Amino acid sequence: MQPDLLQEARRQAEICNACRYCEGYCSVFPALHAERAFSDGNLTQLANLCHNCRGCYYACQYTAPHEFDLNLPQALANVRQDSWEELAFPRAAGKAFQQNGVLIAIATVIGFALLFWAARALAPASGEGFYAVLSHNAMVAIFLPAFLFPLVSIAISLRRYWRHIGAGPFRFAHLGEALRQAANMKNLKGGHGDGCNFEDEDRFTHARRAVHQAVMYGFLLCFASTSVATVMHYLFDSPAPYGLVSLPKLLGISGGLLLVVGCVEMIRLKLRSDRALGATGAFGGEIAFVGLLGFTGFSGLALYALGQTAVMPGLLAIHLGAVLAFFLLTPFTKMAHGFYRLTALTAEAGRAAGSG
Q1: Per residue in 132-145, pLDDT tens?
Q2: Which chain regions cross the lipid bilayer (predicted)?
Q3: HEC secondary structure over 88-137
Q4: What are the structural domain ranges in the chain?
Q5: Could you give the CA distance from residue 237 to residue 224 in angstroms, rounded to a whole number?
Q6: Residue 260 and residue 211: Cα distance in Å, rounded?
């Protein structure tokens, strides 16, 4: 990891540890105040506990023009971004996406969409709905490896992370506490529960917390839709297509709507925010990830709406291209931040339990 980023984060963490004005703002500060000296692993853990709500920055009396020139959100964001790149598997892919995220996302979606469009020549002689364009077995053969690859990649990355921060033994009870915090976005409520001022220094809102919840639960509903459809197909011999009031469709449509609305609003908030308080050079990669996730949801909804029309084969190719690109790029995009933050919260729950 880059020594200059770690050294700057260490300098600022030591000043914050002496001040303690922001004690209780979020999970970062109890972890920060528990240390007297900060190793590289300590700083990486603090960085991944930080949700970049920026409340500490606007409350701080030591920001520029003070000679201390504190900008803890940016210092931690830089370390966090660097840790995702260094711990990614493979590392080169992580660095490449952060440097050229928008171009890689667009090129990947278009490339996969063209491949799916060309695969129409291999369409089955019989089939209903989407399976008239691409057989079920072909979809499984393509998407099963694409689904397993990010799981393996992220598992290796998180194992590296756990070792790097020197976390203690893993306990499911600690994971349960981390899931509870993640489920209600505890650390985006702000220091006093009034929300954060991510997009506006003088206005505390829960907007960022709300859009994060929309994206998270929208994604989970879409995943549940696919999972339910898989169970219905293999266990109940009920293959797609499904009716509008079927469980896969209800889960998929509600999840897609949440995903699209959440991603659009998240991009709006990011455009309004002060980029100087985020990771240097990471803005393009973040927008690329959010845009790809939102486009995946939008193309799925368009496919639901126009699945019985002549444009269905083209829409299917675009949607499948977006889904495949999303899965394969997940370990190297900001999608990975959810896994890292959950791991960081799990490790912090273990530390708190041990100190108690």
Answers
A1: 777 777 788 888 88
A2: 101-119, 139-158, 214-236, 242-264, 276-304, 310-332
A3: CCCHHHHHHHHHHHHHHHHHHHHHHHHHHHHHHHHCCCCCCHHHHCCCHH
A4: 3-82, 89-355
A5: 18
A6: 10
Cis before 313 (ω within 30): no
Out of 4-18, 51-65, 118-132, least confident range: 118-132
Measured CA distances, 346 to 39, 45, 161, 261 (Å): 19, 11, 12, 29
| Beta bridge partners of residue 205, listed in sequence order | 196
Instruction: With H, G, I as helix, E, B as strand and everything else as coil, classify residue 251.
Output: helix
* pLDDT, the chain, mean: 89
Encoded tokens for 109: 């979606």
209-230 exposure pattern, b = at least 16 Cβ within 10 A, e = fewer: bbbbbbbbbbbebbebbbebbe
| pTM attached to this predicted model | 0.88
Q: Are 39 and 116 in contact (CB under 8 A)?
A: no
Token digits for 134?
């691409």
AA letter at 271: L
Single out the residue of 169, 184, 6, 188 nearest to residue 81, CA to CA: 6
Identity at 309, one-letter amino acid code: T
DSSP 8-state class, residue 241: P
Please give the C-alpha separations between residue 89 and each of 44, 206, 275, 331, in angstroms, as whole numbers: 17, 34, 28, 8
Partners of residue 196 on adjacent β-strands:
205
Could you tell me if 334 and 286 are in contact, meaning their C-beta atoms sit under 8 angstroms apart? yes
